[in-house]
Amino acid sequence: MSKTINPFKQRLLDGQKLIGGWTLSGSPTVAEAMAFLNYDYLVVDLEHSPASVHDTTPILRAIEQTPTAAVVRMPSHDPIAIKQVLDQGGMTLYFPFVESVEEAKAIVQASMYPPLGKRGFAKMHRAARYTTREDYPAVANEQVCLIPQLETVEALALAVEIGQLDGVSAVFIGPGDLSMTMGLPGQVNHPDVRAKIVACVTACNQAGIPVGTVMPTPDDAKWALEIGFSFVSIANDLANMLGQCKAHLAQMKNS
């Protein structure tokens, strides 16, 4: 692990546009294969997948041998789970369904070593390379990249306030849950959903806050980058696999 800060975080701070993948399968092999495609980053989903916090290490090991950066979507805001993922070597973390400034502050507290937070300290873990990386405690806070997910209309209204908190590096708009809470389940391209997204992204851009999301297709991802998103994932491993399988099956049945 380099002494420099998290490359994903640095690229956000440099204003770069990043294109990501997403893995829901919980498979280190699938994560490794996708990461060799040279996405800018790959999201390891622990919220909506069979993977748990305890599965994180083999998946991170698989990704870290590639040029792709690993991003972990946490299953919750639980401080113990946060500590475990950070100790396993996770550096960039998404946090689902952040609904208030207070929740975002609590996430920062659980993720940062004192004096910035209250993360529990240990020397013997993978992030510190099992004590061989003596500088880890001094650089850990700089390397951590915390990204609250805003997934309701009320949360989007707090995007700038949350994004400006010390310790928060960016915010993420969850279009699926946003559409659900607006009474338009799954309709992420509905004009009303898109209007809320555009308004939030515009406000964050004006405040200098990077914003990310996930989109179902490349065309949707291009739209997201055009309106001001800084980082966008395209679909996920299971959706891509099933989509290709369905296309193959339909082609065979119709031939």
From TrEMBL:
Q: Which residues form the HpcH/HpaI aldolase/citrate lyase domain?
A: 20-239
Keyword GTP-binding annotated:
no
Which Gene3D superfamilies would you find in this protein's record? Answer: Phosphoenolpyruvate-binding domains
Keyword Lyase found: yes
Q: Which Pfam families match?
A: HpcH_HpaI (PF03328)
GO cellular component terms, semicolon-separated: cytoplasm
Question: Which key words are in the record?
Answer: Lyase, Metal-binding
Q: Which InterPro entries match?
A: Aldolase/citrate-lyase_domain (IPR005000), HpcH-HpaI_aldolase (IPR050251), Pyrv/PenolPyrv_kinase-like_dom (IPR015813), Pyrv_kinase-like_dom_sf (IPR040442)
GO MF term (any one): metal ion binding
Q: Which family does it belong to?
A: Belongs to the HpcH/HpaI aldolase family.
What name does this protein carry? 2-dehydro-3-deoxyglucarate aldolase
Provide the species name: Marinomonas arctica
